[in-house]
Amino acid sequence: MRRPVRTSVVAALAAAALLVPAQAAIAHPGHGPGKPKPGASPQLEKLDRGLVALPGEDGIHLTWRLFKSEATGASATGLTGTDFVVKRDGKRIATVTDSTTYVDPDGTDRSKYTVSPLQGKREGKASDKVTVQGSPFLDIPLTKPADGVTPAGEAYTYAANDVSVGDVDGDGAYEYVVKWDPSNSKDVSQVGYTGPVYIDTYELDGTLLNRIDLGVNIRAGAHYTQFLVYDFDGNGKAEIMMKTAPGTKSTEFKKGKAKKAEYVTMPKADRKAGYSHSDDYRMSADDYAAHLADVFQGWSERKEVVSGQWPATIEEALGTEPTHDYPLSRADAEELVDYFIDVYAPSRSGRNVLRNFEGFIVDGPEYLTVFEGKTGKELETVRYEPGRGDDGLLWGDYAMSRIEPGNRVDRFLSGVAYLDGTHPSAVFARGYYTRSTVATYDWNGKHLTKRWLVDSGHVPMTNPFNDGPHGRDGTDPEYGTLTTQGFHSLSAADVDGDGKQEIVYGSATLDDDGSLLYSSFDTMPEGSATPGENVRLGHGDAMHVGDFDPNRPGKEIFTVHEGGAYAPYGTAMRDAATGEVLFGAYSGKDTGRGMVGDVRPDVPGVEVWSSMPAGTDASGLLSADGDVLQSTNPGTNMSIRWAGDLTTQIVNGAQTVTPTIDDWARGTMLTASGTLTNNGTKGNPSLVADVFGDWREELLVRTADSSALRIYVSTEPTEHKLYTLMHDPQYRAEIARQQTTYNQPAYTDFYLASDMSFAKVPLR
């Protein structure tokens, strides 16, 4: 186990001491540093009781929500303050005090149930009456989009993918927002056309409320569409917010029939410039060659060339002697394009087959749209900030041996954060390998207001066709160290204890006002590529933020890193407030997966583990303070709080393997027959979240044919009483974030495990 000898953290300096470009980070008026107003509570949903009745081995299993406002104290096993009356067919059958579950041994499949809150002897309003489900799960019927054919003649079909939830109609029950992915969905590094992406909103009974067709100018893939479902303006009804483009349209459904589709509103300047909703910016291979000729023709006028930062000619940039006059004629530019595509690019890597480069979108307007959750009606459309700027040339997409236009420039993330401690803000990020940007917005019911925009600036290169831009600072004096620190996800958590959430952007963290709280660096160890050098912890694929160690104050961040021999750690546990590494291990290889959870209740704190290469001393299961507990460890795709004893279980099963919920000690607890996970080897469920019943999480997966979204609810009894996790602001924000790119679990603001103290659970 490697514990750091020295950890350095690049902290934000006072804005007054910096020469920061205008608008680099703007604090929203009236929302400066400090604690929220006394008595202020985060804006959260007003939910119904969420009562569900399911058949179980010992009878009918009932589970329902405790609201945060109903808890007033704590006992050794749970929260106190409100008890519940359970009625079957109108007759009282039980008073439940120690949980929000009950098993009725005398119930039948024809029984009907309600629960009512009980404070003292006063019985409150009863829940809606529910009937017993016919199976141990609930199916939401889905309406699959029609198959299609790409411009290249390739047929594609659709499968249900990521899911998010929100109360879009204000009735206290969640609706389900489903992303449909075409079978030709692509990673951002893969060439080829894709079908369009659809975003549907469903009631629990399968009623389709609306469908948003993102159109041909939004490519399909995990890195492209990040959709937020949240009640941003506090009117009790959730909005949907995402990146759009010309061609994006929304259709409301009434009684199963589609109303007229409405396109998003294009800015007047775009309409005047000739853009229209019939535009198709997808590139064919010939389009790409013509685009590259345009880039080459404009070479001598580029400011980087004029200043002497880049080579004066394309030939010099490609390592040959100049043979053409500049500015280039069209014929000369096309000749150099042929050389670049057929000779230079393959010489850098055999995987650079740019004659096949097609299906990418590197031009055209980009928008951010707010939709009404219930109807899909467009509420407002603004420009997406920042725009791409180019096809990735400035972002480093041509600089390394793998030439990948449209890659680093089109890496997107999204999330929700309570930046003022009370109101939710939308978070949209672009880029993390080189230039890294994060924009936050508030929605007041009528207009989007940009709270702040952080931008590292591009990484300066001496030659955009042959350089190493990763791990180097961007041009911005305050945010330059954000580059290469972002992950394929982000998190919102109050890491400094001021009552406001920060944005954990991988190996760096932004404070609630947009200032840089820290960017984590450390010393490269012996055996690495650059021993003794102080470098970024760098990019990684998995990140977890929460209170994982009850024996130390504050929160922790557990991350895995893919920098291999150029990263100081393969895995690291950091202090969330300072970015300091508490413990970690160098791997020398891409450490691709990592997970945390209470899988060993005999050990204090939650455990952490990763897919470290075999043989390194951090392989296996580690305690919250870094001790190696055993050489084997659970899976790393997704965790779930399923058991009644407050421990953590793991969702396993990827590609065509049937998903299971597995306990590290007890084995398989559920086999989700007839369903599949998403996103290839990552094996992500559509969603893991507390959408029904007590504090435990439900498993949402698509049926194998995507005809339904299946929801599994735990029927294991519990002796612990806790309010719905959706009333914890960190957890609720993280559920909205779960859909982004490489789906990660959600964690609460408080320590949640088998050895937790309920007295430390926040009640306001």
TrEMBL record:
It comes from the Bacteria. Residues 137-255, 355-761 form the Rhamnogalacturonan lyase family 11 C-terminal domain. This is FG-GAP repeat-containing protein. One of its GO terms (biological process) is carbohydrate metabolic process. PANTHER family: RHAMNOGALACTURONAN LYASE (EUROFUNG). Pfam families: RGI_lyase (PF18370), RGL11_C (PF21348). The keyword Thylakoid does not apply. Residues 108-127 are annotated as: Disordered. It comes from Microbacterium oleivorans. Residues 1-24 form the signal peptide. The keyword Membrane does not apply. Residues 43-132 form the Rhamnogalacturonan I lyase beta-sheet domain. Keywords: Signal.
